[in-house]
Structure of Glucokinase:
Amino acid sequence: MKRIILAADIGGTTCKLGCFDETLNQIAKWSIHTDTSDSTGYQLLKNIYEAFVEFIDQSQYKFSDVVGIGIGVPGPVNFETGEVNGAVNLYWTETVNVREIFQQFVDCPVYVDNDANVAALGEKHKGAGNGSDDVVAITLGTGLGGGIISNGEIVHGHNGSGAEIGHFRVDHDQRFKCNCGKSGCIETVASATGVVNLVNFYYPKLTFKSSILQLIKDNKVTAKAVFDAAKAGDQFCIFITERVANYIAYLCSIISVTSNPKYIVLGGGMSTAGLILIENIKTEYHNLTFSPAQQDTKIVQAQLGNDAGITGAAGLIYTYIIEKEGVK
């Protein structure tokens, strides 16, 4: 019987769960509701464990076949201890030791990491990172996050704040306040929220008609509407798209001279804008970046979509147990 890996990607609304073989081929995936009623995290983690038990009971596997369990959590994680220092979307207001709680239910290894880190690991192993040991994933959604894989391992830093790339200050005029409490973070100008910020900032200066003026007046502007209008030739929206692309390219340039990745993977809802955004990012990236650092580096769109989290959570077990200890 092949051994298996169990994985959980905890979100604010649903927990995506999965079962993988030892080479990270997906065997099954399903989801359960995220129970946020308990600020200690215990009930949610117990629900995940019970969902795993139900899966095992209905499958050909036993818990003795489980190499380990990987869990991705939307909050800052101390990778060494498995502690999550609060998670706003889960209403965890205090530190929750996910590993310690989960190991009350199981006797196999449990690894815990930040959800953006595990998504990056998923893209490295089974997505656009093509198995490279040096991959950076940038998630362009309501906010901007990401993960850095260097020499095959996730960059955590000394207290778990490594790769908090949404908080590079790129807007030195500090026009918009970030959720972190500071102003000028790249998240404020290059996420879906950032697109709206820029539209609202620049549209009073418009000297020509734009197709999204009515949306602006009705306070219904979205990043998708801006990118769609840019594709249709709207000059104002093309300008906004180029501004956003330039900020992201600057971030990619900094990353390239820091960790020199083989792949920079763009994911999240905004990445589906397609060529109008990604080609602008590539052009400005090549203009900005130190030539040796950009040589053979590819900026690509993420491939795994919503499966990146569970794949990467399973990837924690693959990377830190199977690859390191030769469990086969």
Summary: Residues 49 and 168 are 37 Å apart (CA to CA). The mean pLDDT is 94.
